[in-house]
Design brief:
Blueprint (H helix, E strand, L loop, with lengths): L3 H10 L4 E7 L4 H6 L4 E3 L6 E7 H17 L7 E5 L6 H10 L3 E4 L6 H11 L1 E6 L4 H7 L8 E4 L9 E2 H6 L15 E6 L9 E5 H14 L7 E4 L6 H13 L2 E5 L4 H11 L3 E4 L1 H12 L15 E5 L5 H10 L4 E8 L4 E6 L13 E2 L4 E5 L12 E6 L6 E2 L3 H7 E2 L2 E10 L5 E6 L4 E3 L2 E3 L1 H9 L4 E11 L3 E10 L7 H7 L11 E4 L12 H8 L2 H9 L1
Helix pairs in contact: 1-3, 3-4, 5-6, 8-9, 11-12
């Protein structure tokens, strides 16, 4: 079915029930004055600002957006970009685009002006909805945009070159336009992470989005009574498709701005959240705050919180063991996926399989997997190969890039670029990204394995392992170590801890620095390689 059918169903069945809540602990007094609908909440002395909409209002807002677009000549198949921070307007705009039969193009809010211009041009987007945080970047590229581009500004004090979204949409009909949408129609263009250059444009159908909603609800046993806390950015398939579980069941979701431990636990407590999706750094921050006494669980209502799940990156087993010390009754899941597979879930651990922490799991609802060698032949169980997935959420392809599409799609199978292996019980373990494998003296080193080992060291807050060039071995493993706040750690301590690793897997270089991660929690290894790539060559020259 088209994904828009689920919103219309919820509007009819649960019209007066709350669909979305936005919480902003970081809003300023000035912002509060301009956003009149914010409600000031002060539970237990903690002040934050809150907005909410019901399912009926959500659907009506989406209808207004679709009618606005159609009144400006936008028709089925045209592309409409969204450049917004997480907010209560985000999802109604997204669904309004889809209801017009148009194609939504969410943009990463970390994009530079050049990247924004590239992605708009790449997708042939005719319209852009953007917020106040991006005025400078849009002004920088406004000259390069066609005069035919429509710019809708979602905020106060609308720039002269854009249309005021709130004024325009308020004058539009709130009834649904009569547009026939098929589940095979393209619904959205999502962009890849772009870690190897400018991102690729990924084509996803309505059917792919709808299956991800059913899959999410199935995997996490989501019910009408659940409350999902959504923190990651909505431009990414991860956050969007996890929220789709709420859409599928008609349950409430909370959009939280801010990732500090107090904000997260306050939202869980005040909103009665039952499902929370965290990225590894946020889970680590909560544990550190609990360890050092900065926050105390007895100050929060968490008994209803039943599930914590993590995705977007490998999860150190030591983190989950530590988590269960504070939350022994939590169910846990990890979800694996790519934007090319409509986000998370093509592989998932499963709520009943916490004893397999460290694995990404088994094929998800409606999915198949295989692990292949360089020739495309399936490897024997236990051997390392490239993970391939096949299922209802595989992308149509990369927009206007048939060569790149052919490189990763073969007979419906998506080649993920991730190296993996399968244990005797059929559980899949990520070994590393194919391009991140370090070949040192003829041995394959998998950074994820070394990172998981180092993450268990009590003083390590975060760690990234990359390959650095070496004249003798070709490459060596370098560990970038981010030490926990308030602690000190030496290279000697790291080396001593690594004595339990096989000699060839031990990092040859230790660098104490922050570990950069992107908006979805993935380590920015290209940036690290660029920053430290010449380090060993310089050392070799100094020693020669």
């Amino acid at each position: 079915m088209p994904i828009t059918d689920l919103l219309e169903r919820n509007s009819k069945l649960y019209g007066d029930e709350v669909a979305l809540v936005e919480i902003n602990p970081e809003i300023t007094e000035l912002q509060r004055v301009t956003w009149k609908e914010y409600e000031l909440i002060q539970p237990s002395g903690n002040t934050y600002y809150r907005r909410q909409i019901t399912w009926r209002v959500f659907d009506e807002k989406a209808n207004r957006v679709s009618n606005l677009l159609m009144s400006r000549g936008i028709c089925a198949g045209q592309k409409v970009a969204i450049l917004l921070m997480n907010c209560l307007e985000w999802l109604p705009i997204y669904f309004g685009i889809l209801k017009a039969g148009a194609i939504a193009v969410p943009l990463n809010f970390r994009y530079t002006a050049d990247e924004i211009a590239y992605c708009i041009k790449k997708a042939d987007a005719d319209v852009l909805f953007y917020g106040p945080e991006f005025i400078g970047r849009i002004e920088d590229i406004s000259g390069s945009l066609s005069k035919n581009h429509l710019l809708f500004y979602v905020g106060d004090s609308c720039p002269a070159y854009a249309d005021d979204y709130f004024k325009m949409v308020s004058n539009c009909e709130s009834t649904a336009p009569k547009i026939l949408i098929q589940e095979s129609d393209i619904a959205a263009i999502y962009y890849s992470s772009g870690t190897t250059g400018f991102p690729k444009a990924i084509l996803l159908t309505h059917q792919a989005l709808s299956q991800s909603a059913q899959m999410e609800a199935t995997h996490h046993e989501t019910t009408k009574d659940d409350v999902f806390l959504c923190i990651p950015p909505l431009y990414h398939t991860g956050a969007k498709m996890h929220w789709f579980g709420s859409l599928y069941t008609g349950s409430r979701a909370v959009l939280l701005k801010g990732t500090n431990p107090k904000s997260i636990l306050s939202a869980v407590s005040n909103e009665g959240c039952t499902i929370v999706w965290l990225l590894v750094p946020w889970a680590q921050d909560i544990l550190v705050a609990l360890d050092n006494g900065e926050i105390k669980l007895e100050n929060y209502r968490t008994s209803q919180w039943r599930l914590m799940h993590i995705g977007a990156q490998p999860v150190p087993p030591s983190l989950i063991r530590h988590w269960l010390e504070y939350f022994p009754n939590h169910k846990y899941d990890t979800n694996y996926g790519l934007s090319e597979s409509t986000g998370p879930g093509c592989v998932h651990l499963g709520l009943e399989n916490i004893h397999k922490v460290g694995a990404i799991g088994v094929p998800g609802f409606g999915w198949k997997t295989k692990i292949v060698d360089e020739q495309g032949n399936e490897v024997e169980q236990g051997n390392v190969g490239e993970l391939c997935v096949k299922g209802p959420g595989v992308m149509v392809g990369y927009y206007k890039d048939p060569d790149a599409t052919a490189e990763v799609l073969e007979n419906g199978w998506l080649h993920t670029g991730d190296m993996a292996k399968q244990d005797e019980d059929g559980f899949i373990y990520l070994v590393d990204r194919k391009k991140d494998v370090i070949i040192s003296g003829g041995e394959n080193l998998y950074p994820v394995q070394i990172e998981a080992f180092l993450s268990a060291m009590p003083k390590v807050h975060d760690v990234a392992v990359i390959g650095l060039p070496d004249k003798r071995l070709g490459e060596i493993a370098a560990a970038i170590i981010q030490v926990k706040a308030g602690m000190e750690c030496t290279e000697e301590e790291i080396n001593r801890f690594c004595m339990d690793l096989p000699r060839y897997k031990r990092p040859r270089t230790i660098i104490f620095a922050d570990v950069p991660r992107n908006g979805t929690g993935k380590i920015e290894k290209p940036a690290l390689r660029k920053k430290y790539g010449s380090l060993t060559l310089i050392e070799d020259e100094n020693n020669s």
